[in-house]
Amino acid sequence: MQPGQQPPQGFQWDSAGQQQTAPAEQMLQGSPNMLQGAPQSMMGNNAYGQQQMMMQQPSTNATAALVISLLSLVGGFVFFLPFFLAPVSLLMANSSLKTTSMHPGHSDHGIARAAQIISGIITGFMAVGLVIFALFIGLLMTQGF
């Protein structure tokens, strides 16, 4: 070193008489948020070294709602009786969506949304069909049949 130059930042010329500090934790390559020398667990550590608890997602009826809505879609046009399962599926899908919206990132959210859309469309068709049927019956009654 030339006279008048300062040593690099963080470099200590003489460590005698100073208290020793723990070596800085180093990040491991290829492992996000994992520090070398830090205790690891299956639960995982957050950025502050505190353990995180993995919360289990609550179960929903989203899959059952989707199956019932698809059954009412296919069977409703063939037999007409499963057509009445669409409102039941819509209620189940709305209940599942309420649960999944309270837990962001829930794995059943897309399934519940699909069941809601399918059963909502089928319920709408069913309501329009019932109104047309009621009007037709009313028309027949007024004609004296």
Could you describe the 3D structure shown?
The chain is mostly helical and 145 residues long. The protein has a domain of 82 residues. 48% of the residues lie in helices and 3% in strands. The protein contains three helices and two strands. The chain has a two-stranded antiparallel sheet. Strand 1 and strand 2 form a beta hairpin. It is rod-shaped, with a radius of gyration of 33 Å.
Summarize this entry quickly:
48% of the residues lie in helices and 3% in strands. It has 145 residues and is an all-alpha fold. Strand 1 (26-27) and strand 2 form a beta hairpin.
Topology of this structure?
Elements: E1 26-27, E2 35-36, H1 62-79, H2 86-102, H3 109-143
Antiparallel strand pairs: 1-2
Helix pairs in contact: 1-2, 1-3, 2-3
Whole-angstrom Rg? 33 Å
* Order of neighbouring strands in the sheet with most strands: 1-2
Structural class by secondary-structure content = mainly alpha
Low-pLDDT runs? 34-42
Query: Helical region count?
Result: 3
Shape: rod-shaped
Work out the helicity level: 40-55%
Cα distance, first to last residue? 114 Å
Count of β-strands:
2
Largest sheet: 2 strands, antiparallel
Q: Strand fraction band? A: under 5%
**Helix-strand string:** EEHHH
User: What is the typical, i.e. mean, pLDDT?
Assistant: 77
